[in-house]
Amino acid sequence: MGGDGGTITKKTHITLHNSIKDGKVAPDDNRKAFSDASIWQCCRLSNKPLQEPIASDYKGRLFNKIEIVKWLLSKDKQGYSQEQQDEFKDIKRLDDIVELHDISVVHDEKNSNEVSVRCNFGEDILSENKAFVYLTKCGCVLPKVAVSQKKTSVPERRCPNCNTAYDDLDTVFINPANASKESTQLEERITKLREMKLHHNGKPLKLKKRSKTKDQSPESKRQKKSTI
Ligand SMILES: [Zn+2]
């Protein structure tokens, strides 16, 4: 441990996020290795070891859901560095994340602070060694091969774990490499969803103005009143 041992964790956040930023390799190789491993083991927002419930955003980053709730509840974001505020600015409501299922947090026998996350479908530990996805409809985490194999002719695709129907827009890569084909696909996916007026979790965006062309039912009028 260095001389900084007494400082609070906020400082760690800043240095760690610096090292990850833009996928640039930090001059210190050890730092790079730590960052690569930590994205599979630590909450991206708080850098705390991952603990259930775990959630993910449209970029496939992993978070402790409780930390996202704290983030959302903090209106002025005073407890967060400017860098964190920039990096997580797209997370504005719970609809911007999906709670993940069918995973388990495994604690290291020697050091309980060391955790890894296991995908129960196939029993693999989440890491960069294998590609993983989750489905926004059900939150199930799956090895990528488990969903790509299902791509064949069947018009309706179903989660191999829980049988929920889904389509390509419901599939999110977990921790894709920066500037990879997968991370580009995720950006294209969220652009498409926004055009379709949908949140990351598939729920409709709440529109401020309602269209006059339809929806004159008593129910819609009631909704209109209640939103004003
Ligand atoms: Zn499922």
From TrEMBL:
One of its GO terms (biological process) is DNA replication termination. Residues 195-228 are annotated as: Disordered. InterPro entries: Rtf2. Residues 199-212 have a biased composition (Basic residues). GO terms for cellular component: nucleus. It comes from the Eukaryota. This is Replication termination factor 2.
